[in-house]
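Design job #97: recover the sequence.
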């Protein structure tokens, strides 16, 4: 069932100083908070294809290189989380109803983010490229 499968991405500048985030309107529990950019996986596509498609749909920018650095799963479904490092991040713009913004990583407004971004963004920036998988028991 694809409806509980998602891709989420953090697109950073090449020097890792900036990141694109989206101001969520839905689902209700995310409304008014910043999150990475992504969405639901469609039938027949893999998580990577979903990430490329969702990022282009939300930002107008085609980013063809993504690394799956983390996977979260539980009773709610499964999410593959990606990072990318490209200065194309400075070309992103709002395409759909949710506002896309660029932030300095050193000045992220964590009080406005989805709570797990406090650890997902540092993990995405991990210079050692540590990959992980977290599953509910």
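Job complete. Output follows.
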């Amino acid at each position: 069932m694809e409806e509980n499968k998602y891709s989420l991405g953090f697109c950073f500048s090449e020097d890792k100083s900036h990141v694109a985030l989206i101001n969520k309107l839905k689902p209700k529990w995310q409304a008014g908070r910043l999150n990475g950019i992504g969405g639901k996986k469609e039938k027949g596509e893999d998580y990577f294809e979903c990430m490329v498609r969702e990022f282009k749909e939300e930002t107008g920018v085609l980013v063809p290189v993504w690394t799956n650095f983390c996977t979260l799963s539980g009773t709610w479904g499964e999410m593959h989380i990606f990072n990318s490092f490209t200065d194309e991040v400075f070309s992103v713009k709002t395409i759909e109803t949710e506002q896309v913004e660029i932030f300095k990583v050193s000045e992220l407004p964590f009080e406005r983010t989805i709570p797990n971004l406090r650890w997902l963004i540092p993990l995405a920036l991990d210079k050692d490229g540590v990959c992980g998988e977290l599953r509910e028991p």
